[in-house]
């Protein structure tokens, strides 16, 4: 009987039926064209996320050191040897202005003396003319005026030391106040030997700092005295001395228009320092970003900073997606 049932099964269940059944079952697991397309898109999206590069990785900077700081989030976005001690050059004048405004009222009149005019560079000042401190500082920051910085330091030094001392002693007192303010502000790697940042000799700079602390210096100054430091975003400003004589101050940052929503900037250049630059810009929705570049070249400081600006905007855009 069993033999007959086995023979009957062989008769009615043909081998090709097993093949067709297998094909049918496999078709149950085949994706529809729409499902297949969606699957491929999801895979491609996943792959693009995996391949997404950090915009900073492709940068080639001339600068010896650079730093990008997100003020709103209070964190570093990019660093290149950001804690290496380097000559500061005229970035120093940010602290000169910061210190001056921290010590005396901005409406104090400052006289331009003969000693100040002897400083390197000619800003067109005349001996004996008087300027409101605020206007003189604005001129100093825009033009990077060494004689303006010297006039400020000697005048304020005399206020604190009293008359009867020489210019070097007055300046030394003011520079001591600059260093004290740097320490109180947490700028522990920053120190000043003069008020302008000019090189003192072939091997000694007028001030030293790091890219990280140079950025922090601008952030603090902009936070404490925004009205003064936001004027450094302007290409030119006409100012008047006490006698009403008008003088145009032209910004040494010639790359102002290349940075979107610029908030503040300060250049620096000496033989020892090379090209330095610190800027602040708004990355959108009140998000100040501070960028510092130290040890670049005269032109390279601008292109370095510009590269960092656009890499920062790209990086922030990626994070918001």
Task: Please explain how this structure is put together.
- With 321 residues, the chain is of the alpha+beta class.
- It has 2 domains: 2-51, no CATH class; 55-320, DD-peptidase/beta-lactamase superfamily (Beta-lactamase).
- Helices cover 45% and strands 19% of the residues.
- It has 11 helices and 12 strands.
- A hairpin with a 4-residue loop joins strand 1 (65-70) and strand 2.
- Helix 4 (92-103) runs parallel beside helix 7 (146-161) and helix 4 packs across helix 8 (167-184).
- It is globular.
- It starts with a helix and ends with a helix.
Rg value: 32 Å
Globally, the shape reads globular
Order of strands across the widest beta sheet? 2-1-12-11-10
Strand content: 15-25%
CATH superfamily of the largest domain: DD-peptidase/beta-lactamase superfamily
The number of distinct β-strands equals 12
Helix/strand order, N-terminal first: HHHEEEHEHEHHHEEHHEEEEEH
Return the average pLDDT rounded to an integer: 88
Number of domains: 2
List the helices and strands and how they pair.
Blueprint: H1 2-12, H2 15-27, H3 33-51, E1 65-70, E2 75-80, E3 86-87, H4 92-103, E4 109-111, H5 114-117, E5 130-132, H6 133-143, H7 146-161, H8 167-184, E6 191-192, E7 207-209, H9 211-224, H10 226-229, E8 236-240, E9 246-250, E10 262-270, E11 274-282, E12 288-296, H11 300-320
Antiparallel strand pairs: 1-2, 1-12, 3-7, 4-5, 6-7, 8-9, 10-11, 11-12
Helix pairs in contact: 4-6, 4-7, 4-8, 6-7, 7-8
């Amino acid at each position: 009987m069993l033999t007959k049932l086995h023979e009957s099964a062989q008769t009615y269940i043909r081998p090709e039926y097993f093949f067709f059944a297998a094909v049918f079952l496999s078709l149950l697991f085949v994706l529809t064209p729409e499902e297949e397309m969606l699957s491929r898109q999801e895979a491609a999206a996943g792959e693009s996320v995996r391949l997404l590069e950090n915009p900073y990785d492709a940068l080639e900077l001339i600068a010896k050191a650079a730093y990008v700081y997100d003020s709103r989030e209070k964190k570093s976005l990019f660093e290149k040897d950001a804690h290496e001690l380097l000559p500061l050059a005229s970035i120093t004048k940010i602290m000169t202005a910061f210190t001056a405004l921290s010590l005396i009222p901005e409406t104090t009149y400052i006289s331009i003396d003969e000693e100040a005019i002897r400083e390197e560079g000619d800003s067109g000042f005349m001996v004996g003319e008087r300027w409101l401190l605020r206007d003189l500082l604005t001129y100093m920051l825009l033009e990077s005026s060494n004689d303006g910085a010297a006039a400020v330091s000697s005048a304020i030094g005399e206020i604190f030391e009293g008359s009867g001392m020489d210019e070097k002693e007055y300046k030394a007192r003011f520079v001591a106040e600059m260093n004290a303010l740097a320490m109180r502000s947490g700028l522990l790697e920053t120190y000043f030997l003069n008020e302008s940042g000019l090189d003192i000799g072939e091997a000694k700079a007028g001030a030293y700092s790091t890219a990280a602390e140079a950025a922090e210096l601008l952030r603090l100054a902009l936070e404490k005295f925004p009205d003064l430091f936001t004027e450094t975003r302007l290409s030119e400003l006409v100012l008047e001395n006490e006698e009403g004589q008008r003088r145009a101050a032209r910004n040494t940052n010639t790359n102002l228009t290349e940075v979107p929503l610029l908030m503040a900037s300060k250049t620096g250049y000496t033989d020892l320092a090379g090209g330095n630059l610190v800027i602040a810009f708004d990355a959108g929705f009140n998000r100040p970003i501070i960028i510092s570049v130290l040890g670049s070249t005269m032109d390279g400081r601008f292109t370095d900073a510009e590269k960092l600006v656009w890499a920062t905007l790209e990086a922030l855009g990626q994070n918001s997606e």
